[in-house]
Amino acid sequence: MIVAKHNTAARLGGPICGAVMLAALMLVPMAQGGTARRTVKTKSGVEMLYLPGGSFVMGDAKGAPDEKPHRVSVDAFYMDKYEVTQESYRKLVGSDYSRWKNPKAPVEQATWAAAAKYCNARSRAEGLTPCYDTKTWKCDFAANGYRLPTEAEWEYAARAGTTSSYSFGDNQSALRNFAWMKENSGGRPREAGKKLPNPWGLYDMYGNVAEWCNDFYAVDYYQKSPAKNPQGPASGSRRVVRGGSWNSRATECRSSYRSSENPAYSDVCIGYYDVYGLRCVRRG
Ligand SMILES: [Ca+2]
């Protein structure tokens, strides 16, 4: 079960030094995105945020053709405050294939299936019903366990109430305060939670590891997406990946930027996956 713990704005301080914090606050119009959300700690020790449901414009008219703006709403859900770390993955699954070993860094070289397996393992560890059928890879959205976010949930969380390219505004040069990307990562992923969080308190939504979503990818999905709790196309050959990674350019880290990858349902195929990781959600 999830145990409630009240969050405060002090969480924004985290590991960031005062000067950086002050500079960031000057750049971030906090009122635009609202306030940090309530933190909960799960039985397996993972911090999540409770995100009340809401409606938002998904996509960006200035973005790529597959980012056509459209209004959607999502129900309340819990989302991991940080990317899943190697320590957490190893504890629950037993081993991980991360290339850049560091218990506090996000798990990477995670295929979509490896990400789904972690969700199931965490559900079982907490006495919840797993969401994934590992024969068909179908997700049971009614189950009370962990799963990958839908693409809509991911963007809703990344935007944190904002309508700009990034949750701190449109100024690309400020992204270095919030994200590990090609420009500042030194060519590898970094420990989770070392940059500034978004207005709701989520860390590393931009950069570090790119995050698997539950949805199959379709370039034209936004033109036929339902307005309420969209779950992506019924089938496809690629799964959605969001947020950009330590190897991405700033524009690929935008809130609405869509990327996709072969999910590799077998663990054999781990080729260039050292940019892919995950964070979990659970129904609210
Ligand atoms: Ca990320």
Structure in words:
This protein has a single domain, classed as paralog of FGE (formylglycine-generating enzyme). It is 16% helix and 17% strand. The protein is α+β, with helices and mostly antiparallel strands. The longest helix has 14 residues, at 112-125. The protein has a six-stranded antiparallel sheet. Strands 10-9-8-11 form a four-stranded mixed sheet, covered by helices on one side. The model is unreliable at 1-31 (pLDDT under 50). A hairpin with a 5-residue loop joins strand 2 and strand 3 (47-51). Calcium ion binds next to loops.
Concise summary:
The chain is an alpha+beta fold and 284 residues long. 16% of the residues lie in helices and 17% in strands.
Keywords:
globular, 12 strands, four-stranded mixed sheet, 284 residues, 5 helices, binds calcium ion, alpha+beta, 17% strand, paralog of FGE (formylglycine-generating enzyme), six-stranded antiparallel sheet
Beta-strand percent range: 15-25%
Helix content: 10-25%
Tell me the number of strands: 12
Radius of gyration: 17 Å
Number of domains: 1
Residue stretches low in confidence (pLDDT < 50, at least 5 long) are 1-31
| Overall mean confidence score, pLDDT | 89
Ligands in the model, by name, code or SMILES, are:
calcium ion
**First-to-last CA distance:** 12 Å
For the record, the CATH architecture stands as: Alpha-Beta Complex
Fourth-level CATH superfamily: paralog of FGE (formylglycine-generating enzyme)
Side-by-side strand order of the widest sheet = 1-2-3-6-12-7
By secondary-structure content and strand pairing, the structural class works out as alpha+beta
